[in-house]
Amino acid sequence: MPAVELNGTRLEYTDCGRGEPVIALHCSGSSGGQWRRLTDALDGRFRVLAPDLHGCGRTAPWPGHRPITFADEAQIVGALLQACGGAAHLVGHSFGGAVALHAARLHTPHVRSLALIEPVAFHLLRDGDDRDAAALREISDVADMVTRAVASGDYLAGFGRFVDYWSGPGAWAAVPAAKHAAMAGSLGTVALNFWAGLNEPTRAGHFAGVDVPTLVVAGERSPFAGRRVSGRVAQVLPNARLVTLHGAGHMAPVTHADAVNDLIRAHLDAHVGSPRLQPQSAQLQPVGA
User: Fold this and answer.
1) How close are the terminal C-alpha atoms of the chain, in Å?
2) How are beta strands 214-219 and 240-245 bridged, if at all?
3) 233-276 tens-digit pLDDT
4) Which candidate among 57, 110, 198, 233 keeps its CA 20 to 30 Å from the CA of 279?
5) What does DSSP assign to residue 31?
6) Average of per-residue pLDDT across 59-66
7) Rounded-to-integer distance, Cα 219 and Cα 224, Å
8) pLDDT tens for residues 112-145?
9) Strand blocks (E) in 36-152
10) Which one, of 107, 84, 93, lies nearest residue 37 by Cα?
11) Measured between alpha carbons, how far is residue 72 from residues 29, 63, 219, 248, 252 in Å?
């Protein structure tokens, strides 16, 4: 697999298709392989680059002596933008959606469009109304549970509760038992991802300049916090539309892949050739800066 070196870590990614590049970022506890069906749905008309984020797939865990941030993960997007010629569409789900959102803020002239499926930018719920505060309390409780499970070494139960929160009671029990241990091993990365989402310092006003065409997708059956933060993201971006996918939950790119991929494909087709790379701001920062 191709890879980029970033701050001493080798980050692998798949690179399939031709045409305008699409950088696709996966959710917590997954890998770039999450986007195989999207790659197939695009039928080679776009070049899809799907990295394994820190601690996922073939990429080593976050090596830093501090918690990881969205800016740290967004460096991967910067490296891939350099690798694919300087401009791309960004697609992201859950944690990957929040990373894509922040990468778009940092590299706006290089982003042709955004497609975000329930991006977990929970920090945007701060300073909101009572419903935002309730959603923030809900997801903070889940994050605290994950942190306690990591601290106690109870990875299997902690990952099970994490899965059941996002996908509904019984979802973890429905996963083949043979897969439980491998999946639960990523709980430490999940805890770091929660920390990034809840402690990110940026607020709504920081995204006013992210004027790229944006699709935000929320699942009708997703937990309240996921639906609420999707709405907030759509509000803070100046060129966004929110679509609620009926019958779907937070894991819609997996459980309702055809419907999600149809939305993404139509969004990409509508914005092929979107003008980016404005002369005064087209210089990417060096990798690892």
Assistant:
1) 24
2) parallel
3) 999 999 999 999 999 999 999 999 999 999 999 999 999 987 66
4) 233
5) -
6) 87
7) 10
8) 999 999 999 999 999 899 999 999 999 999 999 9
9) 47-51, 88-93, 111-117
10) 93
11) 17, 11, 28, 30, 26
Amino acid at 234: A
Whether the CB-CB separation of 55 and 62 falls below 8 Å is answered with yes
Q: Give the residue among 168, 167, 152, 162 at the shortest CA–CA distance from 186.
A: 162
Q: Is the pLDDT of residue 281 over 80?
A: no
Q: What is the pTM of this model?
A: 0.94
Neighbours of 244 (CB within 10 A): 14
Q: CA-to-CA distance for 153 and 59, rounded, in angstroms?
A: 22
Q: Which amino acid belongs to residue 128? A: G
Max CA distance (Å), the chain = 54
Structure tokens at 14: 């798949």
State the residue for tokens 């039928």.
43
d(CA 235, CA 50): 27
In whole angstroms, give the CA distance from residue 112 to residue 274.
5
